[in-house]
Each structure stands twice: as structure tokens, then as C-alpha cells.
Amino acid sequence: MAAGATRRTYHHGALRDALLAGARELLAERGAEGFSLNELARRVGVSSAAPYRHFADREALLSALRDEGYDAFGAAQRAAAAQATDPADRIIRLVAAYLSFAEENNAIFGMMFRYWSWAEVRPDTFAPLVDAVTEAQEAGFLPAGQSATTLARTIWCTVHGLTTLRLTGGLTKLGLDAPTDQLIRDTFAAILRDPTG
User: For residue 128, with 0-12 CB atoms within 10 Å meaning exposed, 13-18 middle and 19 or more buried, which class applies?
Assistant: First the structure.
């Protein structure tokens, strides 16, 4: 701590929030492996013991960040689904929200899917996609012969791969990138069909 600086004091709950905010900053700057709880304490301006009041260790802190990420991701998915005009549009909007969330929250997004255990996966986060696939099957936009879960998994794998290639610059390097809306519609044109055709 710099000379003349004083350690901050936090009321109950505010310290946890401050630690999470500081951890988000460090995560964006250095990645999940790039900081320690001691460094986080210095960043927030508290003693090196203070983080342990709320987090047993560094992994517990990262797990809390992943939980925040899943909550925010799920909220973005539900908001996108609510704006749809029909079942096919709902899937397109969910895919667009997936890409947008990843681009706007790159560090958290990468950690959500890289440093996870199956016990941490939040099925409710992905429920909007399964629901949208079910509705799209009933409306004829998707084939009814497969389970909604299987089709949702296919769509999830496709959009996750697309997102990863976009974030790492792979699409640009291969000359395959396009504006987001066009990219999504081109990618899913082979999956979604016109029920009146």
C-alpha cells in the first residue's frame, strides 16, 4: 500500500462486492490464472486476510465469478427470447445474445466454459434455448423427429464454435467473418426452415 494510504473499511456485504468487482477487473486484465487473493486485496485496499472472510480460497472466488456470469448470461438469454416475433426469430435472437454476451464479457465467458466442473453447470441458463427449439419444432421451423434437447445441443455447439472462432479472430483470418446478423442467419439457414415452404 502506498505511503499515506489508508485501508478501506467495508460494512457486511460491501467487502464481498468490492472483492468481486476487483476480481472482474483483474480477470479482464490478466486472465483467470493471472492474479492472487493477496493481489486482489491490495487492489481493493484491504488486508491480505480480508478476502478469506468471504472466500475460502482463490477457486471459491473464481466460482463466484462464474456464478455471476451464468446469472448474467441467463438474463440476457431470457431477455432475447422475450423480444422474439416467432419461434425461428427466437432462436436467432438467442444466438445473437450468446455472441453479444461473449464479446462484451470475454474474460468471464471464457472462464465460464474453461474452468468449470459439471456440478457448476446451470441448466436453467440454457432452458430458453431448449424451450425455443421445442416451440420451433411445433411450428415446423425445425424437424420434429429429434428430441428438443438433441437439437438444442446441436445449436449450442454450433453457436459456441462460431463464438469462439469470432473471439479468437479465426473467422477474420480465414476470410469468413461477416456482420453479426448476416453471420448468424447464414449459419442457421441450413438448420431453420420455412414451415410454409
Answer: buried
